[in-house]
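subagent[fold] <- orchestrator: predict structure for attached chain, return tokens only, no commentary.
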Amino acid sequence: MKTVTSLFVVLVLMLVIGRAVSAAADTNSLVWEAESKEYTSKPGERYAEFKFWFTNTSKAEVLIIRAQSSCFCTVAQLPSTPWQIAPGTNGSIDVKMDLAGKSGVVTKSVTVDWSEGRKTLLVKTTITPAVPVPGMADADRLKNMQTALADRQAIFKKAECVSCHFDPAKGVVNGEQLYKGVCAVCHDSEHRASTVPDLRRLNHPTDAEHWRRWITVGRAGTMMPAFTKAEGGPLDEKQIEAIVAYLVSTVPSRGTPIR
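subagent[fold] -> orchestrator:
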């Protein structure tokens, strides 16, 4: 009887140990090429992007369920959820950190949950301060803001403003390039006026008509000018539509737009 009891205990222990080994193997089914990444931004750069590669080393399919960041300013992108990773295959999780309004060294985490485990990835960005606009002292910037409030189209008439708002649009048809050359100088600027919104942090809904309206006719009572050539601006209809398409694809829409 003692022999049978001892054998039973041994079998139970073997089963427990086997399950523990199996669980450990499953937890390590995704092998990561790195668990942390570091980046030093260029002066004035808006985003820091990271790529985390992994390989499914197990003999079974793995499902990546979610990738959750520690802050809304950092986004981990998955092609689908759940993401099916076949045995022996690899892939990457792309992480994008928004640097707007940040300075110094910024560290964020991304927690990845899959069918057999969890992994925490770290991204760290050393932010390089934007290079000041040559000759643009605070007094000059304030003066330009006051001029724009008095006449929204003034930025297309003053020589020092034309180089920032008019020249970058010449011969350009790509929406992203037009936005970065014509719009970002104000809307993405670290030194933008409090009345100039960050377009990616709006607290109201948007759509194509919303963007088209404000780009074309501007907004009375603000510094937002009319960018259409018909009003003395730098953009023709095709260029305006290119920027509209870019904004629709990069700025999330929320509900019914405000007209």
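orchestrator: received. Logging for downstream: Residues 7-26 have pLDDT under 50 and may be disordered. Residues 27 and 117 are 5 Å apart (CA to CA).
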